[in-house]
Design goal:
Helix content is 45%, strand content 13%. It has 245 residues and is an alpha/beta fold. The chain has two domains: 195 residues, Rossmann fold (3-Layer(aba) Sandwich), CATH 3.40.50; 34 residues, no CATH class. It has a six-stranded parallel β-sheet with strand order 2-1-3-4-5-6, with helices on both faces. It is globular and about 55 Å long.
Amino acid sequence: MMLQGRRAFITGSFQGIGLGIATALAAEGASIVLHGIADEKAMTKAEKIVSSLIAKILASGPIDILCNNAGIQRTGLIENLSRDTWDDILAVNLTSYFDTMKLLLPQMKERGYGRVINTSSVHGLIASVEKAPYVAAKHGVVGLTKVAALEYAHVGNAETGGVTINAICPGWVETDLIEPQIQAKVDLQNGDRAAGIADLLSEKQPSKRMSKPSDIGAIALFLCSKNAHNITGASISVDGGWSAQ
């Protein structure tokens, strides 16, 4: 039970990648604080409640591991996107990450151990059309991760585990969110799920295999270990070769 006695706060953790990370950490003994906002309209106001949320969490004990995973996505050409759409996506996908890090990193510093794992995306490394706000936010997450990693690299030591800040950059991950896209391709392949997934991925992900939320959880779990004390400021691609092209 590598994380026995540790406490993790995971945003956007009721499903998908966030739930995969929560499951992996819980299996190693971590106490988990789940988080999610079901009402999309409320997401635009998320940054306004972060401070009170963190205060309530810390009142019942410290946070050792912060996994920023909350995100929203809307697509369209730049000329057709509204400023409100831009603001909403940047607020949830980037600004909220800054807010939680600002509030939680100081108390990690005091104890000499802390892990921040930011869910970026392959779109934090490369671009795709019709995703300007999302790509901008995910690139911002990678940059924010690097700066924070430098600012806290000196904290702690190999024995305490130090404070590290890293980003995971997934490509296609098999979640409920993209199940309709998968099923449409499966139908075209006469019910062959593997062939349908390969068809969906053929344009961008060379492995033609999707990751599962548990795959991302396993990477997050390793980053939480003391052995990972010198992995900081990294952007770890989990994209089947997408960003290598």
